[in-house]
Design brief:
By secondary structure, this protein is mostly beta strands. 9% of the residues lie in helices and 36% in strands. The protein contains three helices and 18 strands.
Length: 220
């Protein structure tokens, strides 16, 4: 993991998690953008070994403020969505091209809507993510950072444990809400392709008196 205090950036290494190029199984449903190993790789764009709690600490270091993941509340016998809160964070993927250049990709272009084939960025141009900050839960007599266990680092559906949450609340329960988002097999590279995930704080001023180059001051 790398942190750039002056530019308020956090980067960590990841890899493409799903194979959406098999003719027999081209439709890969998505529930998260980024997860940790042995959790939700079958429904995530990328997987990383960076611990969500470490990413949380890095975001605090660059001046982001955690809020809360999305949820639901009862009102008049119905479940009303409660949007996530927290500092806005721009999420991008960096991918090395065969020509030796680095391409910066909006992950919302790697997600398409079932039926229409439209990219998430087209369907919802204001799509974004916030530093929700997951939550602390009691587990086997200890307080634990929930996303470290669930692996839900950057969310798409609303599970309630995401470190970074999509600003729109969507249920992962197929009985309540039909699965809607697929991996874009026209754009996604092969499974296992290295990807750098970059997180940039939206708004605010650079932190003064810090280096201007990226430095690996946080390691995982």
């Amino acid at each position: 993991m790398r942190i750039n205090l002056s530019e308020r950036l956090v980067e960590f290494d990841a890899a493409v998690a799903v194979d959406c190029h098999q003719p027999q199984t081209p439709d890969v449903y998505l529930e998260v953008l980024c997860c940790t190993p042995d959790t939700r790789e079958h429904e995530a764009l990328v997987v990383t070994r960076a611990r969500p709690s470490t990413v949380h600490a890095a975001l605090l270091a660059i001046g982001a403020t955690p809020g809360a993941p999305g949820s639901w509340r009862a009102a008049d016998g119905k479940a009303v969505p409660v949007p996530p809160r927290g500092t806005g964070v721009r999420v991008t993927f960096l991918l090395d091209t065969p020509g030796g250049r680095t391409q910066e990709i909006d992950p919302a272009t790697w997600v398409v809507q079932k039926g229409t084939g439209q990219a998430l960025r087209e369907v919802d141009p204001d799509t974004g993510w916030v530093f929700a900050g997951s939550r602390i839960r009691r587990f086997r007599g200890q307080d634990v950072y929930d996303a470290d266990g669930t692996g839900q680092l950057i969310g798409l559906h609303t599970f309630g444990s995401e470190t970074l949450a999509w600003t729109r609340v969507e249920s992962p329960d197929a009985t309540l809400q039909e699965p809607l988002w697929l991996a874009n097999n026209a754009l996604m590279p092969p499974i296992g392709t290295p990807v750098t995930v970059r997180l940039a704080v939206l708004g605010g001023e650079p932190i003064p008196g810090t280096p201007t180059r990226s430095a690996p001051t946080l390691n995982d």
